[in-house]
């Protein structure tokens, strides 16, 4: 049995695969595997393990129908045409749950970095511009007691809400596809409409998946309904906000600041105006990038491969989610 991984995966997942008697071939180059090569590798393999957001479209899957599973080393599956996969009988799996803490922590970090203009001050120091501090210089804003609006109160959104409530006593409001009664009880969270979320939040943190419904939902119309003091955080997918509209909203003072772990496109160009704004903090999509979390993700991705290659039900199928 052979599996091909599109990136070098963490040791723990690799060891699980090897102990299960599976031959593992990895793409060790730091550039993305070219499409032609990817098809060639697929043809030699029984399963593939995908890391990174490379598109997995119908044309590719039509040539790889023999695969027992395409195991994603991610919770997000917006890069996969799930409808085509299901029609072609290809099983797709992901790695939910284990990355919720790390990813919420990156949103939490960004919220504070924006509130205190931390990345901006760091850049000033690097340029030798420490400057002369006065009582009215270098001011950020407090987070304590403010209202956090979570868009997408699933696994990661719930951890972000917990962190913010415990650390800063924030009031939690949320909008989600379905009401989350456990969170309403545990976090005293209030379900609101999308427009109410925009109007009432001091900080909005996006944790939805990227779907046709959520694509560019944060656009000029949405930003215009937010408070001029609001902070926008996106640690989900860059496609959920419209970048030009976000830049305009910040430049015209429609909102106060933004923290992004995800951008559209990725990587962000180094000359992007967002990178020069004092109340903006950008990270290069490192939400789940801790040693412990990436090892845990690799164990789950490996377990999905091992189950599929042994003809057992996979622990984390996502095919059934394509209609959502
Ligand atoms: N920055 C990073 O490194 C990472 C980003 N992510 C992103 O975060 C997303 C969320 O991950 P999880 O919390 O594990 O997923 P989840 O499935 O537990 O939560 C997603 C939530 O979004 C809600 N949602 C979906 N469409 C909606 C809509 N139109 N309106 C309102 N709510 C909607 C769902 O009901 C669900 O509660 C992933 O899909 C992925 O794209 C995930 C991990 C790491
Ligand atoms: O899991 C995901 O969806 C990511 O974006 C990276 O961990």
UniProtKB/TrEMBL annotation:
In terms of InterPro entries, this protein maps to: D-isomer_2-hydroxyacid_DH, D-isomer_2_OHA_DH_cat_dom, D-isomer_DH_NAD-bd, NAD(P)-bd_dom_sf
- Claim: Oxidoreductase is one of the keywords in the record: yes
Per the database record, which ranges form the D-isomer specific 2-hydroxyacid dehydrogenase NAD-binding domain?
109-287
Q: Which residues form the D-isomer specific 2-hydroxyacid dehydrogenase catalytic domain?
A: 6-319
Q: What is the lineage of its organism?
A: Bacteria, Pseudomonadati, Bacteroidota, Chitinophagia, Chitinophagales
Q: Which domain of life is it from?
A: Bacteria
Which family is annotated? Answer: Belongs to the D-isomer specific 2-hydroxyacid dehydrogenase family.
UniProt cross-references to PANTHER family, sorted A to Z: 2-HYDROXYACID DEHYDROGENASE-RELATED (PTHR10996), GLYOXYLATE REDUCTASE 1 (PTHR10996:SF257)
Q: Which SUPFAM superfamilies match?
A: Formate/glycerate dehydrogenase catalytic domain-like, NAD(P)-binding Rossmann-fold domains
List the protein's name. Answer: D-glycerate dehydrogenase
What UniProt keywords apply to this chain's record, in alphabetical order? Oxidoreductase
Q: Which CDD domains match?
A: GDH
């Amino acid at each position: 049995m052979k599996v091909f991984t599109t990136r070098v995966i963490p040791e723990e997942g690799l060891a699980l695969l090897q102990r299960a008697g599976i031959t593992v071939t990895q793409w060790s180059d730091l550039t993305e595997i070219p499409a032609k090569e990817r098809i060639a590798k697929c043809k030699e393999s029984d399963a593939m393990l995908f890391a990174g957001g490379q598109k997995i479209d119908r044309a590719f899957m039509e040539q790889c129908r023999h695969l027992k599973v395409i195991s994603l080393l991610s919770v997000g599956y917006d890069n996969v045409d799930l409808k085509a996969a299901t029609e072609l009988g290809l099983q797709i799996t992901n790695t939910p749950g284990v990355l919720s803490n790390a990813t919420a922590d990156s949103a939490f970090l960004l919220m504070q970095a924006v509130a205190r203009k931390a990345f901006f001050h760091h850049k000033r120091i690097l340029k030798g511009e420490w400057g002369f501090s006065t009582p009215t210089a270098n001011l950020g804003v407090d987070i304590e007691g403010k209202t956090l609006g979570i868009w997408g109160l699933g696994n990661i959104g719930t951890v972000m809400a917990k962190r913010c409530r415990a650390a800063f006593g924030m009031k939690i409001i949320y909008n989600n596809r379905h009401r989350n009664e456990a969170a309403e009880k545990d976090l005293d969270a209030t379900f609101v409409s999308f427009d109410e979320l925009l109007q009432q939040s001091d900080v909005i943190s996006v944790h939805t998946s990227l779907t046709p419904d959520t694509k560019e939902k944060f656009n000029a119309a949405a930003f215009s309904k937010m408070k001029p003091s609001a902070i926008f955080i996106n640690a989900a997918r860059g496609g959920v906000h419209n970048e030009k509209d976000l830049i305009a909203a910040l430049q015209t003072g429609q909102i106060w600041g933004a923290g992004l772990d995800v951008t559209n496109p990725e990587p962000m160009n180094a000359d992007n105006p967002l990178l020069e704004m004092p109340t903006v903090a950008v990270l290069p999509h490192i939400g789940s990038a801790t040693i412990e979390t990436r090892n845990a993700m690799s164990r789950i991705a490996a377990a999905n491969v091992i189950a599929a290659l042994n003809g057992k039900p996979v622990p984390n199928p996502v095919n059934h989610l394509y209609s959502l």
